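hiii so um. not sure if this is the right channel but i have a protein structure encoded as tokens and i wanna go backwards to a sequence. like what aa goes where. can anyone help
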């Protein structure tokens, strides 16, 4: 009997369609689509592979997801899974599952991951190392928090996405600017945290019914907040050949305890954490969805698998298998420099090709005339793969030193 799966795809972006490719390639699966798009806009390659379609106005509205789910339940007799990988959708998806009686992450668990203040409280109650934090709704509450922890502090939305809209305050003037930028009020509070200094890493974990079955850890070079604050920085993400290097192996126990404290069931989770200069470790935050910054294709390259397909199998069938890691991988992000809003020149490509070309396996190069990117990932990227971590580090260093994207 085939599994009946509803996939929530607000728009047909590359990542969303890549995930849909993975789902439609699974055997014994019947796929229905919940989307903002009309049925006529479904790409031709999915005709006959997607067997149900329901258009909604807002995929972040749980009640609209419930209405769609009820329509599929009436037509199909049952729905076994309701899934989507975008972080903003995790809570409405969970609310809809609860109301429809569909197995998967519940609303209570989803809120543990999406609401950062609640997340940190759960982790602290479990005795885990996290930065001191507070939910602030006014300037006075922000100043009181600074009196407790000192400068610098970090402010972010309580249900933020990665490092977007994250601001560091180093004195009273920058604190006032941060409060204004985030428009902090009692009805629109911000998450305030003490600033943690150290190497920033990720830790990806696959759990099945709460049991960890697979781990991976990567480096941010440099950390996301430094990248956000310095638009000229060319940065990288590194996935070592060693699946868990010694520092990550040590952190593994904290990761497992944190996921247990948050109540994770079956999921691929993406945790960010710090390794301080003194060797101590601090959990930053964790999301119950696949990681960004090209970590999915990088993990796939290292293990010789399609990681999106593996995620689809995990979410539909509660199973995951991957061969041992055989390679290292990394991504170099090319970010425009200068005050302009359009790419005027891309320099150093020939030098980059000479020094790093043999390791490049995928790329999207900046093009003259394209507009300045709105996100911190920049105007282009190159993904590299090597047999050793050292090879990949050398290739990444060559790429970020050679390529220069000039804005004007």
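sure thing!! here u go:
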């Amino acid at each position: 009997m085939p599994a009946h799966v509803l996939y929530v795809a607000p728009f047909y972006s590359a990542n969303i369609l890549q995930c849909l490719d993975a789902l439609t390639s699974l055997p014994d699966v019947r796929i229905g689509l919940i989307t903002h798009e009309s049925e006529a806009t479904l790409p031709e390659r999915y005709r006959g592979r997607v067997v149900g379609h329901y258009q909604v106005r807002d995929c972040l509205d749980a009640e609209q997801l419930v209405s769609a789910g009820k329509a599929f339940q009436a037509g199909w007799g049952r729905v076994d899974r309701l899934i989507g990988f975008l972080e903003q959708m995790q809570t409405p998806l969970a609310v809809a599952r609860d109301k429809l009686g569909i197995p998967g992450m519940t609303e209570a668990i989803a809120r543990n991951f999406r609401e950062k203040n609640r997340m940190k409280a759960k982790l602290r109650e479990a005795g885990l190392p996290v930065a001191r934090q507070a939910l602030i709704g006014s300037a006075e509450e922000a100043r009181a928090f600074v009196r407790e922890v000192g400068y610098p502090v970090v402010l972010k939305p309580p249900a933020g996405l990665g490092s977007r809209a994250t601001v560091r305050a180093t004195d009273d003037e920058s604190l006032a600017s941060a409060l204004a930028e985030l428009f902090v009020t009692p009805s629109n509070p911000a998450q305030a945290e003490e600033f943690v200094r150290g190497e920033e890493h990720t830790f990806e974990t696959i759990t099945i019914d709460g049991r960890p079955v697979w781990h991976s850890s990567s480096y941010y070079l440099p950390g996301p907040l430094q990248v956000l604050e310095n638009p000229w920085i060319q940065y990288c993400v590194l996935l070592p050949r060693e699946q868990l290097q010694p520092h990550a192996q040590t952190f593994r126990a904290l990761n497992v305890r944190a996921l247990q404290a948050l109540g994770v069931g079956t999921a691929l989770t993406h945790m960010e954490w710090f390794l301080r200069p003194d060797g101590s470790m601090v959990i930053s935050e964790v999301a119950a969805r696949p990681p960004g910054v090209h970590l999915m294709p990088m993990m796939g390259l290292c293990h010789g698998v399609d990681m999106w397909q593996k995620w689809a199998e995990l979410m539909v069938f509660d199973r995951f298998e991957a061969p041992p890691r055989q390679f290292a991988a990394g991504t170099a992000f090319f970010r425009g420099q200068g005050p302009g809003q359009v790419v005027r020149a891309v320099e150093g490509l020939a030098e980059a090709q000479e020094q790093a070309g043999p390791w490049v396996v995928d790329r999207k190069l900046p093009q003259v005339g394209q507009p300045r990117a709105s996100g911190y990932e920049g105007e282009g990227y190159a993904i590299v793969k090597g047999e050793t971590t050292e090879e990949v580090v050398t290739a990444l260093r060559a790429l970020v030193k050679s390529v220069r994207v000039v804005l004007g």
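oh and The first strand starts at residue 3 and ends at 8.
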